[in-house]
Amino acid sequence: MPLDPNLDYYEGVRHLPGSYLVLETTNRCSVACVHCSVGEASADGKGHPHHDRTGFVTVPLVRKLFADLRAAEARFDVFIPFWLGEPLLHPDFSTIYQEALRAAGEHRSFERIEVHTNATHLTPERVRLALNQSTVPQTWHLTLDATTPETWRKIKGRLIFDDVVANVEHLVAEKARLAAPWPRLVFQFIVSDRNATEAADFRTKWEGVCRRAKLPVRTAAQDVPTGTDAVVYFRQLDAPTVAEQERQNTVFRETMAAMGVPLPRPAQSPEHIDGAPGVCGCFWKSPVIGWDGSLTTCTRDNRLENKLGSIVDASFGELWYGAQVTGWRRQVAKGEYAGLSACNGCFIPRSSNYSGVTPAEIAQALP
Question: How large is the C-alpha radius of gyration of the chain?
């Protein structure tokens, strides 16, 4: 197959469109969301194994990662310093963020940076860090999921809702006062049967906060639209089973329809979930690094069953472009997942809530 001129994988830079690199700054969290592994109880009552050990990624390891990316000539569309913990808890988050901005601005390791936070630790210091005039596009997802303390506690497990709202309102006010271009603000609401009745009020609340601050704002579902304006964003819940996914999809579709918010594509449904597994783009486009340096292929692999190794012991390039993952890619390119226990029963590659990898991208990424 001839090389696609729209891809630059073999032009001295390893890059595929739609790619993102996830780095877990910490697996500690200030809340315990019911839809997250932090709040998941195991059969023996000890909790999810991802949180058996907790800690913070070290600044030297972050610097090593960014140096590895330069050495491997690897480029990702998005850098996400977040996985299964609250990133703003990290005592050196400001340093890590500045290092990421430098890696993006000076070396083009990333096109943009995307932070996900529950805003519990969105202190004035973190607000000052967030608001900047960098040439690197940045988006901060403020995952709020509620408009009342009662629903917040039901989903998040802690009653600190009023403080969170005050933190986010302060961020909006300061962004307006300073006329700071970054970050783009996304007010996120993950719709489920626990909070769907508050979705309309959530839209009214945060659209109103932005408009009073004279910040452009719009509402969207499923995908965050391109642009720099603020977005009140509704996303469907990722569920662990097909049956639960369909139940939550129904809640999502009905809630968006009642609010008159269009969906760019259908929510997941059984006709998409059934059938051949398809090809999962995660093996090409979404490396995930835990706080301890463990590298895997997908954010859903929170038990590290597809672990490729650790960037403590090897370079990112050796692991992400090495023999083991190349063998997996050849296998997955045929829709085969034998031996990949983390992928057994996963319906995401067969769903309409999924952006995959094209045959042209596979051909260029495989040696």
Answer: 20
User: pLDDT per residue over 295-332, tens digit each?
Assistant: 999 988 888 999 999 999 999 999 999 999 999 999 99
Helix (H/G/I), strand (E/B), else coil: 43:
coil
Helix, strand or coil, per DSSP, at residue 342: helix
Classify each residue of 202-238 as buried b or exposed e, where b means 16 or more C-beta atoms within 10 Å of its C-beta: bbebbbebbeebebebebbbbebeeeeebbbbbbbbb
Look up the pTM and report it.
0.91
- CA torsion 194→195→196→200, rounded to 10°? 170
pLDDT band at 238, cuts 50/70/90?
confident
Give whole-number Cα distances, 21 to 93, 212, 238, 320, 330, in Å.
Answer: 17, 35, 20, 11, 21
SS3 309: strand
- For residues 364 and 327, give the distance between their C-alpha atoms in angstroms, rounded to a whole number: 15
DSSP state, 262?
P
CB 163 within 8 A of CB 118: no
| Torsion angle (degrees, nearest 10) of CA 18, 19, 22, 23 | -140
- CA–CA dist 270, 242 (Å, integer): 8
For 33, 105, 161, 256, 272, the CA distances from 200, given in Å and listed in that order, are 21, 38, 18, 9, 28
Q: Is 326 exposed, middle or buried (0-12, 13-18, 19+ CB in 10 A)?
A: middle
